[in-house]
Amino acid sequence: MGAAFYRGAECCALVFDLTDPKTFETLDQWKTEFLNQLNPKDPENFPFVILGNKCDKEGERKVFNYFIDRFLSKKSSNTASRRETFLISRPQRRTILM
């Protein structure tokens, strides 16, 4: 997809599969690709929403909360700042703004 597809975007939703760790591990690559295509004026503050999909398959889950918490820790070392940056709902279902 080219830059025309992303033109005018004000937010980006990245979705990963809770049953497939590879989809979670590539979130940063997808974020970088999106920013390269969109080329926003302020890439450091461009809003992203990360969604964990397939939460109904709890028995098959392979991306656990501690992976997500570690991912969040890398994004911000300041806990108060992290809470402002990342919105987290129920433990099994997380919405993360980055």
Describe the structure.
The protein contains five helices and three strands. 40% of the residues lie in helices and 15% in strands. The radius of gyration is 14 Å and the shape is elongated. A three-stranded mixed β-sheet has the order 1-2-3. The protein is of the alpha+beta class and 98 residues long. The longest helix is centred in the N-terminal third of the chain and has 12 residues, at 27-38. It has helices spanning 3-6, 21-25, 27-38, 65-75, 79-85; strands at residues 12-17, 48-53, 95-97. Residues 78-93 have low confidence and may be disordered.
Q: How would you sum up this structure in a few lines?
A:
The chain has 98 residues and is of the alpha+beta class. The protein has 5 helices and 3 strands, in the order αβααβααβ. The protein has a single domain, classed as P-loop containing nucleotide triphosphate hydrolases (Rossmann fold), CATH 3.40.50.300.
Give the arrangement of secondary structure elements.
Layout: H1 3-6, E1 12-17, H2 21-25, H3 27-38, E2 48-53, H4 65-75, H5 79-85, E3 95-97
Parallel strand pairs: 1-2
Antiparallel strand pairs: 2-3
